[in-house]
Design goal:
27 helices; six-stranded parallel beta sheet; single chain; eight-stranded mixed beta sheet; alpha/beta; 26 strands; Rossmann fold; disordered C terminus
Length: 832
């Protein structure tokens, strides 16, 4: 008898809603059982019409875990009645009626079977994370498949908005969890290290004697998981616990150990893969750091970048629900209640923050003509759509009319992103046998443990780290050597390789080899120019030109600055392709870091993309040199491959550009002197006092006429300033012309002499030899109205007698006599 879940009473209404209509919106709290109970109920009730039930899950781990759980509860095994399909993994066959699949698998099935002939019900689980297929299935229902049923489920849905988007479909809600969960926030922000805070929270949970269940800790990434595991190791040893990691890069066996119950009490350190559509048995306590690593697409740079962001309130609620599955639970949030109120309500949908190239190609193949008018629930930005369309044209997957080409259809059949699928299509054409392995090395986690030069530490492999043509070829060589050694731990350690990453690359290579068979060449024969050309075909938008010879920095197509990783062997090539690129958060650095690079020859660009390589000639004004030059440039898209600068420009064309540049700042361009400044003063004076002459009041207008007169045949500002003749003596004033000379100043005014004032006679103590007549006062000859300057005679300083020191009694007596003396009458006459 299965354990009762909160969704069970609602199942008959779910089945009736899809029988009477064709669409349903279901909102159920985390742990209610919607992922496992609803698809099975639809299958048992025959709502599929004898066809298949397909459940879309947002993450690669979820389909396998859900299929195994449902198959076990129905008394079978995975691959029979219940199966799953994910990237590089499939269990199921012709007898399978209930499929749990990832969104990418479903999208490719739409390309092969646009009408979904064998599908009766499509269930979109955790719809708040991805909802592109909702619009596709809705279009199918309204056009060619009115019998297709659609159910949308999530714990954090905006049911009213979504029901309106699906044409007024019924909306059902399952209230409550299986068991209540107590939420605890921190009282105040903590300045301790994150791993120390996690260890302290685990210690608090372990200190509760009434709770003996497992602990689930949500962390933002694999690196944070490793640090937290080290911090929690003493606690685990003291309490007899197992610390188990869980993230998407782990092997399948390690993921299964984290999901299934263990023999001892466990602390599961997980990323957000355990947040939705995945149930970890035995969890009664959740510790949430409230962070996640999200991919964000920058349309201006054409790059995805990973950012560590705070999760929304809806995501935090989803995480807390993992603790109320089997008994009353507890959730410790490592942030305050005030900080929780400031978080956004819901997560940003992926269609608004990721690269849309793959989605755009799938919609084009499905039949969508105008992506801007596609019925999105949340419409992406025009910049993101333009970036996706531009990349598809560069890859050759669509033509100018938007139709999918043969290359595009072949790429859709390959289970890989557009960049990597294009590498494999080009490898088929060139017969490069190692292309599936190269594509796997480029798409999976890097097999190198440390990104630094290892030659000094490992003499046996040091030669490999010298200057080379491609980091991909280096990894190919290291993988082959580890493969010959059976991927043994000793071989991986000596080569500096990650065994888990090697297994993931091997698994991806096998899957890619099935979808894109290797060419006729022998293994290793393609590890040369053919593979490097394949890398160029797959990344035409990531061609980089080094800024200077030997420098690690360069500029990429689109103008993005990049810097090579110090461990890269591509140290001399002028042009290279950025195969693995980390844009990084904008606040940390402006340059993107190239982890894996591959050299490119200039003639390869002309052969592969002749329409993108062009030569152009332009005559421009160089602001720094203040002169006109002629540039001949060779460009690949907007990336300058090379240029030649000439100074002997045609004087007529140069004069036109000099005039335009000089008019932006006439005073600086002409380097005006004192004569020109006086001319402008007089012109402004005439414009104010005699407006009938038509002089412009603005000096810039007058200078523009001067520039028009001087600029012809000039190639630089230096020539413009070097005037063998004066400024024009006449300027046009409409229908009249008035002469104004600028070459000579006005004649100076004659000096004005004024009589010297009569002397008052010598001072009593002044010597006769110091008596002189006062000099005359002269008016400045520069301009009338200047103030007069008096050249006063200098008189000798009078020598003063030393004052006699008076006693205090004498000073007091003198002061009293002064107060008693009557005031003297004011003397009339001349005022001094």
């Amino acid at each position: 008898m299965p354990t009762p879940l909160p969704i069970d009473p609602l199942l008959p209404r779910v089945v009736d809603a899809l029988r009477t209509g064709s669409r349903l919106v279901l909102r159920a709290a985390p742990g209610a059982g919607k992922t496992t109970r609803v698809p099975a109920a639809l299958l048992d009730a025959g709502a599929d019409g004898g066809k298949q039930v397909v459940v879309l899950e947002p993450r690669r781990i979820a389909p396998r875990a859900a299929a195994e759980f449902v198959a076990r509860r129905r008394g079978g095994s995975v691959g029979e009645e219940v199966g799953y399909r994910a990237r590089f993994e499939q269990r199921g066959g012709a007898r399978t009626r209930l499929w749990f699949v990832t969104e990418g698998v479903f999208s490719r099935s739409l390309v092969r079977d646009p009408y979904l002939e064998g599908v009766g019900v499509v269930v979109l689980d955790e719809f708040h994370e991805r909802h592109l297929q909702g619009g596709v299935v809705r279009e199918l229902q309204e056009t060619v498949r009115p019998d297709l049923n659609l159910a949308v489920m999530s714990a954090t849905l905006d049911t009213e908005r979504l029901a309106a988007y699906l044409g007024g479909s019924p909306a059902l809600t399952s209230e409550g969890r299986a068991f209540p969960v107590t939420i605890e926030h921190e009282r105040e922000p903590s300045g301790a290290r994150p791993d120390a805070r996690v260890a302290a929270a685990v210690s608090r949970v372990l200190g509760d004697p009434g709770d003996r269940g497992d602990v689930l800790v949500f962390l933002p990434g694999a690196a944070a998981i490793r640090r937290a595991a080290q911090a929690a190791a003493p606690l685990a040893a003291a309490h007899g616990l197992d610390v188990v990691p869980l993230h998407g890069d782990l092997p399948l066996d390690a993921q299964r150990r984290a999901i299934e119950p263990g023999r001892r009490r466990r602390v599961v350190l997980s990323t957000n893969v355990a947040e939705t559509a995945l149930t970890i048995e035995g969890v009664t306590a959740v510790i949430d750091r409230g962070l996640a690593r999200e991919a964000r697409f920058d349309p201006g740079r054409g790059l995805n970048r990973l950012e560590e962001v705070r999760v929304s309130r809806a995501a935090a609620e989803q995480r807390a629900g993992r603790a109320g599955r089997t008994r009353p639970g507890r959730c410790l949030r490592l942030w305050t209640a005030a900080e929780h109120a400031e978080r956004r309500e819901r997560e940003l949908p992926e269609v608004l923050r990721l690269d849309l190239a793959a989605i755009a190609l799938e919609l084009r193949a499905w039949g969508a003509r105008d992506l801007a008018r596609f019925p999105w629930l949340d419409s992406p930005s025009e910049a993101a759509l333009r970036s996706a369309e531009r990349l598809l044209r560069e890859l050759g997957t669509v033509d100018e009319g938007g139709e999918v080409t043969d290359v595009g259809r072949r790429m859709l059949a390959i289970a890989a992103a557009p960049h990597l699928a294009c590498i494999l299509v080009e490898a088929e054409r060139r017969g490069a046998a190692d292309a599936p392995l190269v594509a796997a090395l480029a798409t999976e986690r890097d097999i190198l443990l440390e990104r630094r030069e290892l030659g000094a530490e490992r003499p046996a492999t040091g030669a490999r780290w010298a200057t080379g043509r491609s980091d991909l070829l280096l990894r190919l060589e290291l993988f082959r050597e580890a493969e010959r050694a059976g991927f043994s731990a000793a071989a991986c350690s000596s080569l500096g390789l990650d065994p888990a990453a090697l297994r993931a690359v091997e698994r991806a290579r096998r899957q890619l080899a099935r979808t894109a068979p290797a060419g006729p060449g022998s293994p290793g024969a393609g590890a040369g120019d053919a593979l490097l050309r394949c890398a160029l075909a797959g990344f035409p938008d990531r061609v980089v030109r080094r800024r200077e010879r030997g420098w690690p920095r360069g500029v990429m197509v689109g103008g993005t600055g990049v810097v090579l990783d110090p461990a890269s062997v591509v140290r001399e090539a002028e042009l290279f392709v950025a195969v693995d690129l980390d844009a990084g958060p904008r606040r940390e650095r402006s340059e993107a870091r190239v982890r894996i690079a591959s050299a490119v020859e200039r003639e390869w660009l002309e052969e592969a993309f002749p329409q993108a390589v062009r030569r152009e000639r332009e005559i421009v004004f160089e602001t720094a040199a203040e002169r006109v030059v002629e540039r001949e440039r060779e460009r690949y898209q907007d990336l300058v491959l090379g240029e030649v600068v000439r100074h002997d420009v045609d004087r007529r064309l140069a004069g036109e550009r000099i005039a335009v540049a000089a008019k932006r700042d006439p005073a600086a361009a002409l380097a005006l002197g004192a004569d020109e400044e006086r001319l402008l003063d007089r012109a402004r004076f005439l414009a104010r006092t005699m407006p009938e002459l038509g002089f412009p009041e603005s000096s810039d207008v007058l200078l523009h006429r001067v520039i028009d007169a001087l600029a012809p045949d000039k190639r630089s500002f230096a020539e413009l300033r070097y005037r063998r003749r004066p400024l024009p003596g006449r300027f046009g004033l409409g229908s009249r012309r008035e002469g104004v000379s600028a070459s000579s100043p006005l004649p100076p005014l004659p000096p004005v002499r004024t009589p010297a004032p009569r002397s008052r006679g010598p001072e009593p103590n002044e010597s006769r030899k110091c008596r002189r007549a006062a000099p005359p006062v002269r008016a400045s000859p520069r301009a009338p109205g200047w103030r007069r300057q008096r050249l006063a005679r200098r008189r000798p300083r009078r020598r003063s007698r030393p004052r006699r020191r008076e006693s205090p009694s004498r000073r007091r007596r003198a002061a009293g006599e002064a107060r008693a003396r009557p005031a003297a009458p004011r003397r009339a006459g001349r005022r001094w």
